Amino acid sequence: MSKQPHGSAPRRIFIDKQSPKAFHSLVQVSEAVRTTVSEAGLDRIAVELINVRVSQLNGCAYCLDVHTGAALRAGESPRRLGLLNAWRDAGLFTPSERALLALAEATTDPANATIQASAYEAARQILSDDQISAAIWVAVTINAFNRVSIMSKHPVAHSDDKQ
Predict the structure, then answer these.
(1) How far, in Å, CA of 142 to CA of 3, rounded?
(2) What is the pLDDT of residues 80-116, one digit of tens each?
């Protein structure tokens, strides 16, 4: 156990680097989820909306940076990404996307049984069982990656963008 000077913040370790076998297993799960998503017929934009929304809820700057970029590359609009935090009120998201986002939020905060039941009920009206399962797996996986990045304090890469 390393000692820290009194009053200084403890040095964070990158747990993905410290325990590469465990992290590699998480990466393998995400690869399996990618196959599940494809087989369920969910498109890349839907997946990235889930990834961004869950990362917003968890406050994971690193994953927000990664998945915002991925969403834009997949064809998502900056406007919709900017309004994702208010997706219920924005009127810009399809019924299917709304169902996916509700499931993602319920998965991220599973202690609220009322929200969970409501999300499932809405999803059952619009999505197939395969799509519901895939969406939940996407949310479970990004929640895990968020925790790895948050606990490791992964830095957001600096760029020359002045956006």
Answers:
(1) 32
(2) 999 999 999 999 999 999 999 999 999 999 999 999 9
Q: How far apart are the first and last CA of the chain?
A: 42
Helix (H) / strand (E) element for 106: namely helix 95-108
Residue 147 has pLDDT above 80, yes or no: yes
CA dist., res. 133 & res. 92, Å (int): 24
Q: Is 1 exposed, middle or buried (0-12, 13-18, 19+ CB in 10 A)?
A: exposed
Query: What is the C-alpha to C-alpha distance for residues 101 and 95, in angstroms, rounded to an integer?
Result: 10
Which DSSP category does 105 fall into? H
d(CA 106, CA 142): 13
Q: Are 132 and 104 in contact (CB under 8 A)?
A: no
